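Weekly sync, protein design subgroup
Attendees: M.S., D.O., the rotation student, P.L. (late)

Item 1: inverse folding check
M.S. brought a backbone from last month's batch and wanted to see whether the design step gives back something sensible before we order anything. D.O. pointed out we never logged the input encoding, so this time it goes straight into the notes. Structure tokens as presented (89 positions):
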């Protein structure tokens, strides 16, 4: 190796260190969390509809049933579906 090669290597800056690894991305929500979130949102919307419904419309039909009956049916089956088993309901 010649003298010129040694001088060139001495004047060469050191290599740039590699960039640190990117932080891990946040975990994706589980399907159970997504379903529970949507279920809660649906119940909140039902509650908002019940609270906003004027008294005089409570007996008005939704499709062919009165609003109160649709709400009762919805909440009854929410109770059934959330029960651990059918016998306890």
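Designed sequence read out in the meeting:
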């Amino acid at each position: 190796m010649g003298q010129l090669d040694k001088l060139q290597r001495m004047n060469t800056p050191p290599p740039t260190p590699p960039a640190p690894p990117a932080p891990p991305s946040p975990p994706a929500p589980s399907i159970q969390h997504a379903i529970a979130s949507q279920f809660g949102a649906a119940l909140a919307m039902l509650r908002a509809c019940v609270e906003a419904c004027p008294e005089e419309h409570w007996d008005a039909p939704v499709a062919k049933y009165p609003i109160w009956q649709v709400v009762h049916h919805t909440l009854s089956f929410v109770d059934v579906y959330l029960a651990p088993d059918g016998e306890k309901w």
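Discussion: The radius of gyration is 33 Å. The longest strand covers residues 61-62.
Action: P.L. to compare against the previous round before Friday.
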